[in-house]
Amino acid sequence: MADEQKPGGSEAPLPAGGEAAGRPAKPSPPKPAAAPPKPPATMAATPWESDLARELKERFGSQIGETSTYLGQNFIVARPEAAIPILEYLKLEADFDYLVDITAVDWPKRPERFDLVYIVYSFHRNQRVRIKTQIPDGYKPETAVGVHLTANWLEREVFDMFGIEFAGHPDMRRILMPEEWQGHPLRKDYSILQQDQRWVQESLGIESGQ
Amino acid sequence: MPDPTFLDSTELVLNMGPQHPSTHGVLRVILKLDGERILGTDCVIGYLHRGVEKIAENRTYAQFNPYVDRMDYVASVSNGLGYCLAVEKLLNVEAPPRAQAVRVILTELNRIASHLVWLGTHALDIGAITPVFYCFREREEALNIFEKYCGARLTTHAFRIGGLQYETYDGFEQDVKAFCDMFPPKVDEYEELLTGNRIWVGRLTNVGVLTADECKEYGVTGPLLRAAGVKWDLRKAQPYSGYDKYDFEIPTRQNGDTYDRYIVRMQEMRQAVRIIRQAVESIPEGPIMGKVPKVIKPPVGEAYVSIEAPKGELGYYVVSDGSTQPYRVRVRPPSFVNLQALDRMVRGALVADICAVIGTLDIVLGEVDR
């Protein structure tokens, strides 16, 4: 028994030693590699120098956090309550008459959980500007339908996908998902395999959609 | 005055679709009617929702590339181009000139293929049976070139981030030139069938009018905007992929009705041939792939890149957190935004006009629902 154990024991350490030597070697490089890139993990944006940026800062003061440019694309970071006045100002005073898109980005670890992003374009200037605001979960931003009619469906989609409700919206319903669906799929805590089991069973008559 | 009977009730709610041949897919429109007149509509969409934007967050940048073809599946090459350009912008690389020229050729061929599907089905909705066979005959020629180039006809996945995966096949130039010689007379043929046809003109003129201001208000782009007199095309306004090197016109019309949109799209097909001719005669030699690392990890940041797809402005808003998977990909689909104007276009029109208006919007439900 002891003889049998010994060769077994002598055999075992070899692969175990080999694995043990391999194991710490494998996780250890990612750790120091992952640690240094974290501090500079912000967008390397530069200030946006232009008459329009100066005008906006003059007009809205502290409600505009930054006017920056990244990869040649200009954006404004503003307080959430300033988004609609800025859209209105840009439309009426600066010819940004085309609302390209409204969308959101979920950052669950941040206290202001969502980035709400408006993209506007001016045919006259041939220029695009992004307006970004940060809002906490449950905050109801004002609707942009009063400024641009396009906002109607775009905001409905943001509501559907992120659960951000827009105050004063004429028709705040889901648009892509079924109306009775529970949950908002583009939130980061909504798993890719997740579904509304009850809705699937009741409406489709199948056990699971997976 | 006799008592009103139930027959006096004038308003009727009618359900159109989702399974209806002239809704071009699974679009459901609820119509409120007063006799034959449309009082209002409500679009029910989402039947084809596959969560493309959610899928993107769970795939690497390169893995997500084939998925974009499944949105606007009649113009998959354009979808791929937009996505590749957006990621290339984040990586701050540019496709080499040879790749750009091939991209332009394939994208413009795809514009023609997409417009041919539009023309065939639009005419079919209105009662002209013949054009659909003619259109699909010529579209086949364009799809054959895609098939020979990358093996697929519809969901092509023709481009890669940074350039192209495949070199052009032997005889690519000849095939493309043969298409350019063959195609313009065919457009004449379609025009002969339709442009002066009394029924066609009668069914389209002053139907679904959208003025330039209304287009801007609704964010409507593409041929709809140009038919309302706005000379705006992203290929000219903010050129990408070397479109500034080619000489072409932006066709416009003034009335913004369905007939003008028909004329604009017909002229766009001729202009596309013009671009393809110039591109194919001057495909530069050189590499087809830019300096893109094997593992695509764009620096932390975000970019919005849009292209002139056959349906209008197709935009990708991509957010990177520095990892190998996109943190967020937002697709700004032209079909979705344009469809919103349907209600404005058909209010006060007749029920039969809604088929003409859905046809002229040129929506693809795969892109509306994503």
Secondary-structure map:
The complex is a heterodimer of chains A (210) and B (370).
Chain A: H1 2-11, H2 13-25, H3 30-34, E1 46-47, H4 51-60, E2 64-70, E3 73-78, H5 83-94, E4 98-106, E5 114-122, E6 127-135, H6 151-162, H7 197-204
Chain B: E1 11-16, E2 19-20, E3 25-26, E4 28-34, E5 37-44, H1 52-57, H2 61-68, H3 76-91, H4 97-126, H5 130-150, E6 159-160, E7 163-164, H6 172-194, H7 198-204, H8 212-218, H9 223-227, H10 234-237, H11 258-281, E8 301-309, E9 312-320, E10 328-332, H12 334-339, H13 342-346, H14 351-361, H15 365-369
Antiparallel strand pairs in B: 1-4, 2-3, 4-5, 6-7, 8-9, 9-10
How would you portray this structure in words?
The complex is a heterodimer of chains A (210) and B (370). In chain A, 33% of the residues lie in helices and 20% in strands. In chain A, strand 2 and strand 3 form a beta hairpin. The longest helix of chain A is centred in the first third of the chain and has 13 residues. Chain A has a six-stranded mixed beta sheet. Chain A is elongated and about 60 Å long. In chain B, the strands form four sheets. Chain B has a three-stranded antiparallel beta sheet. A three-stranded antiparallel beta sheet of chain B has the order 8-9-10. In chain B, strands 2-3 form a two-stranded antiparallel sheet. In chain B, strand 6 and strand 7 form a beta hairpin. In chain B, helix 2 packs antiparallel against helix 3, helix 4 packs antiparallel against helix 14 and helix 6 packs antiparallel against helix 11. The mean pLDDT of chain B is 89. The interface between A and B is large, with 41 and 42 residues.
